[in-house]
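Tip: read the tokens left to right.
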């Protein structure tokens, strides 16, 4: 069969690229290795982890705060099987939704491993080993990523696990050791920490979520300690062992001192690696870097004309919404349009509670650039809405240009920060000043008032409620 465009991979980048291509009138096919569509995000990533985060947060509130609200419960307990079953239902609904969108947009779906024969011909090998072939004028590689590990760590998927297995546990760990203090580790650690697990985090850097503004890492660590988290910052893991139901992690601090931590589960969460294995890239003259990623130009086209790559298989933040934007960009580029992505303004979010969200430059980046800037911040403990909901941890921090007052970065940790960051993205897309936001009316009482107050603080220290 011949297509205008073939997309390899059906995650957020791939399926959005396919839909946008179809909307623009291109005959489109999508190739997916697994039996379900949606990629890592929908099946073993964003969606299932958020489902468990919500369930665990409900339990945590029932245990810790309901009595204060005047709600009394007896015999509260965790039914982990039901939580996992609900999560599976959420995943199924989302996956079925993507399948519906493929049919609605008349996109042909081919299940099997896609690999290049040449730049215009793709072999599809089913899970039963049957082979077929399609032809396409253009190809978009959107095969995503997989959990990374360290050479000396043996992932047995039982006691030494990745995020995939952490979403399917049949028991609440007694003591979960997490290697890596990044987004995935903090989110999944929160799930089981809320359900009663002891959680220890071993992080090589000096702060958790190290790619974000340091203020956010400090605030999140302070909040997670209230859940009982223990942190081993600046520690290098040297050995991971598993025997029976016990795992052991050995790590060195910066002084060379050795610490050994024992638990019943070890979650290896040190990032992700591009999934470009078995694509037959060598057949079209493409190679990858040491992280498995493919080099592209500003239009996300590889060195082979007509072959594009998006999402986790190229450089940049490994975020579903970044991949979606790139999917649309490639589709529109193929049709001769002139789309644009401002990568600086793609927000990052950590779905712990309090949530963490950020967009633009961090304070550390501005210092490194030698940029003259000013800072305004506002704590949620001073927010009437946050006091009413008992969500007083965290703050909003605004960085603005010292001369022009243009907002350069917004960093939030607090209730519903994942949703609130959108206002900052809109403001920065239109190059708003802190004064612009400060003069906009924000409904009272809302969490978003904290953003306005932080902007007031950045403009001549005019915050009203602190």
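Filled-in amino acids:
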């Amino acid at each position: 069969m011949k297509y205008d465009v073939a997309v390899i991979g059906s995650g957020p980048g791939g399926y959005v690229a396919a839909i946008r291509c179809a909307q623009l009138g291109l005959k489109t096919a999508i190739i997916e290795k697994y039996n379900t569509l949606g990629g890592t995000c929908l099946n073993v990533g964003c969606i299932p982890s958020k489902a468990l985060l919500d369930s665990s947060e409900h339990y945590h509130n029932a245990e810790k705060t309901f009595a204060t609200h005047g709600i009394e419960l007896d015999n509260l307990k965790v039914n982990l099987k039901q939580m996992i079953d609900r999560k599976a239902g959420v995943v199924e609904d989302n996956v079925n939704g993507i399948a519906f969108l493929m049919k609605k947009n008349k996109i042909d779906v081919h299940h099997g491993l896609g690999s290049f024969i040449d730049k215009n011909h793709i072999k599809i090998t089913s899970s039963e080993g049957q082979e077929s072939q399609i032809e396409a004028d253009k190809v978009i590689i959107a095969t995503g990523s997989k959990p990374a590990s360290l050479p000396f760590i043996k992932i047995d998927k039982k006691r030494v696990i990745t995020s995939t297995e952490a979403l399917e546990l049949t028991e609440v760990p007694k003591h979960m050791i997490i290697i890596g203090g990044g987004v995935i580790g903090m989110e999944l650690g929160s799930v089981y920490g809320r359900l009663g697990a002891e959680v220890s985090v071993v992080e090589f850097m000096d702060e958790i979520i190290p790619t974000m503004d340091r203020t956010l890492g400090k605030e999140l660590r302070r909040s997670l300690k209230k859940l009982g988290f223990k942190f081993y910052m600046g520690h290098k893991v040297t050995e991971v062992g598993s025997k029976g139901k016990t795992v052991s992690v050995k790590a060195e601090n910066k002084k060379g001192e050795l610490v050994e931590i024992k638990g019943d589960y070890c979650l290896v969460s040190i990032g992700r690696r591009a999934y470009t294995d078995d694509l037959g890239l060598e057949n079209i003259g493409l190679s990858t870097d040491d992280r498995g990623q493919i080099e592209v130009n500003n239009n996300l086209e590889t060195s082979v004309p007509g072959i594009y790559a998006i999402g986790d298989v190229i450089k940049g933040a490994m975020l579903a919404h970044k991949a979606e934007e790139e999917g649309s960009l490639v589709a529109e580029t193929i049709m001769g349009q002139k789309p644009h992505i401002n990568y600086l303004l793609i927000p990052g979010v950590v779905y712990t509670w309090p949530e963490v969200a950020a967009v633009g430059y961090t304070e550390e980046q501005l210092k490194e650039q030698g940029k003259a800037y000013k800072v305004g911040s506002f704590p949620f403990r001073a927010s009437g809405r946050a006091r009413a909901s008992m969500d007083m941890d965290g703050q909003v921090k605004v960085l603005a240009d010292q001369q022009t007052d243009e907002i350069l970065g917004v960093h939030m940790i607090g209730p519903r920060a994942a949703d609130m960051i959108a206002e900052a993205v809109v403001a920065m897309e239109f190059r708003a000043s802190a004064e612009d936001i400060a003069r906009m009316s924000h409904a009272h009482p809302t969490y978003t008032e904290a953003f306005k107050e932080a902007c007031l603080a950045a403009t001549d220290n005019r915050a009203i409620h602190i």
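The domain at 2-146+273-341 is CATH 3.50.50.60 (FAD/NAD(P)-binding domain). The chain is about 30% helix and 25% strand.
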